[in-house]
Amino acid sequence: MDALTRITPHIWQLPFLVGHVYLVALTDGGFAAIDTGIPGSAPAILDALDRLGGGPAALRQIVLTHHHLDHMGSAADLVAATGARVLAGALDAPVISGARPEPPLDLIPGEQVVHEGVMAQLAAGAMPPLRHVGVDTPLHEGDTLDDWPEPVRVLHVPGHTEGAIALHLPQSRLLFPGDTIATDPTGSRVLFGPFNVDRARALASFRRLTALDDVDTVCVPHGVPVRTGARALLSAATPEADWR
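The chain above was modelled as a monomer; its predicted structure follows.
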């Protein structure tokens, strides 16, 4: 059984080896999932929802921060099991649906080595094939999300993918950065997210997110969520030096 970590009264982290999922309690009694893990992760997500007191029908929204395999990988299975709506950045929607191929990555040499290792690990794990899924609600800069327990700002943060998004909850001072921001395995250092389609634009998006004043908690998909001292860690980040 995968552990659930409560981040706030309304938000839980469901950790995976590759790509964490976050669950959010909505005001209508349902839940939203932020990302869905690699293909094959749906049973663990449904089990987590059950432990939180919701059956499959309680999953109302699936918010995909971007189109990479470890984020959209189980969206189609979850939609089939729950009927949830899929929300994602408008520019990533054609890749998520399968209408457009995934663009090539802009990797520096250090990233290339790490990327090859990650892909080999996934291949060795007998991962099911990826199933594409339609996007019901394309998201843009400045959009808001319905039925969340507090206001949510959608931020378009291109570079990791063309349509990558982050979610900012100013009232809770909480950020879902997608893969633009990661942390090291101890959570003591903020890292620039690797494996981008446009490294220069991703760096600009990273700087935008790390400059946000009203952020105390950073719910990263890779690494350990930042729960304390976020402002200092974000300010101390050295993204240009990461992965070299």
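The chain has a mean pLDDT of 95.
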